[in-house]
């Protein structure tokens, strides 16, 4: 039972990332009708926002400490981050330690701006083009973005640690009545799961309970009619593109302590997340979230040694096998709408 619970937790962890990226993909497709293969690159850019902030906060000034000497007896040169000089050693060290959560404040405006530029500068010209054209141009854009990241940050993963307060593990088994140390799980992975839940709930609440969200949902159902009412639906859809970019970016920021950022991480998550969108149903926001967690859990169980010993490599293909089965039995996906991508 403890092994099963650990795999469920692992699945929720992976599923959180899949669900957040798939949610942004579905927002863009549902509002603009664009199949955005550059969405994984937005996840990557968010992760590198955390890397960038960490590098900025650790910019240091070199000073001479006469009280400390090297092995030759010379005064020791000490590097001290500027933030520690500005705010004091304790506050400055805390700011550096909490670089990843603080990167959220950087990522939101950056990702919204990136989303606006992408939508206004390129994607708006492909609204009425076939989906194949949209896939090709956004896939090409994703390659360009990852090569830019590779040029400035290099090809190697860049470790970006979580705050010290969340570097340990939590004994979840004791809470559930198991023996101590039977179910140990990292704090940050639990933080990521709850963070994903807050973002998902926030997006759904925004669409469900605000006037802006209700207009967007109406536009998703019947764009022409909403436009005839005098509402600038195109402007609202552009804002939704920025929101979708921010969701993907925040998912990337908080995932950096789990997976060290690298220039190809966007592509790694994009393919799986697009499968999640198709399984959940093109254009269905609840379907994207449900499929994200479902496939994350299935992938986690498929990675167990007991399963891989019986079916070698099953962990690499389980998501695609499930997608085939679901699409054969439910061609529109779990919660897909009639008429979406059926023309």
From TrEMBL:
CDD domains: TM_PBP1_LivH_like (cd06582)
Keyword list, A-Z: Amino-acid transport, Cell membrane, Membrane, Transmembrane, Transmembrane helix, Transport
InterPro entries: ABC_transp_permease, BCAA_transport_permease
GO CC annotation, single: plasma membrane
Membrane topology category: Multi-pass membrane protein
Keyword Nuclease: no
Annotated GO MF terms: transmembrane transporter activity
Main location, first listed in the record: membrane
Compartment(s) of residence: Cell membrane
GO BP field: amino acid transport
Transmembrane regions: 17-35, 42-64, 91-114, 190-216, 237-258, 270-298, 310-329
Signal peptide: none
Family as reported in the entry's similarity comment: Belongs to the binding-protein-dependent transport system permease family. LivHM subfamily.
Protein name: Putative ABC transporter subunit
